[in-house]
What we know:
The chain is an alpha/beta fold. It contains nine helices and six strands; from the N terminus they run βαααααβαβαβαββα. The chain has helices at residues 18-31, 38-44, 49-60, 66-83, 96-105, 119-126, 149-158, 172-180, 209-217; strands at 5-8, 109-112, 134-135, 165-169, 184-188, 199-201. The protein has a six-stranded parallel β-sheet, sandwiched between helices. Helix 8 links the parallel strand 4 and strand 5. The model has no long low-confidence stretch (mean pLDDT 95). It binds 1,6-di-O-phosphono-beta-D-glucopyranose (B16) and magnesium ion. 1,6-di-O-phosphono-beta-D-glucopyranose is lined by residues 9-12, 21, 44-49, 52, 77, 114-118, 171. Magnesium ion binds at residues 9, 11-13, 45-46, 170-171, 174.
Amino acid sequence: MKTSAVIFDLDGVLTDTAEFHFIAWKAIANKLGIEFNQEDNEKLKGVDRENSLMYIIEKGGIAMEANQFNHLLAEKNQHYLTLINDINPSHLFDGVLTCFATLKKANIKIGLASASKNANLVINKLGIEPLFDFIGDAASVAHNKPAPDIFLAVAKGLQVTPQSCIGVEDAVAGISAINSAKMFAVGIGDAQVLTQAKLVFASMGDFEFDTVQTAFLSTPAT
Ligand code: B16
Ligand code: MG
């Protein structure tokens, strides 16, 4: 089947916000007396805000009222917003603009499927908002990654079938979401970690659309 769209994740694929999420979650965890390290942060990649805090309080084995839970979510986000304040086009990963130009030239649509409720703000700061044909809204889907909802919503917004889409993700939860959506999953990062992806590139700078397209075309439809 011909590729009709490539749907990108944001954090970890187009720019590196993981470090900012790490700093903000670590501050919350430490305030609760819970240790939070890079290994924990790795597990939270692609995981939405509520489930990330759930992971931390479960790790600490503590119970919490809804009020305090919501207060901590707001506090983490406030801290995160301060940390991303200085993001600008120079924070775009190498290779992203070249890749987008290749897709435009080939008449392939470009979508965004991020779990982040701050996605619009970040792509604005990166200066790439006008390059997308459709931007998914993490707040409006019923289930977050690893559920396929956000990827399916973006395919719908782009008016293409999921089977004709390629999804690009840096997180295990995101690759699962792409596979569940019956799209072709491309990983960005460590192939030993992203084992469920059909193809993995170490970074967006290594992303070769021809290689992806060839692999996609030679994969039998499921
Ligand atoms: P927010 P992605 C995800 O974005 C991040 O990987 C994850 O670490 C974060 O917790 C999640 O967004 C929610 O972000 O708190 O800004 O709504 O990788 O799906 O683009
Ligand atoms: Mg990501």
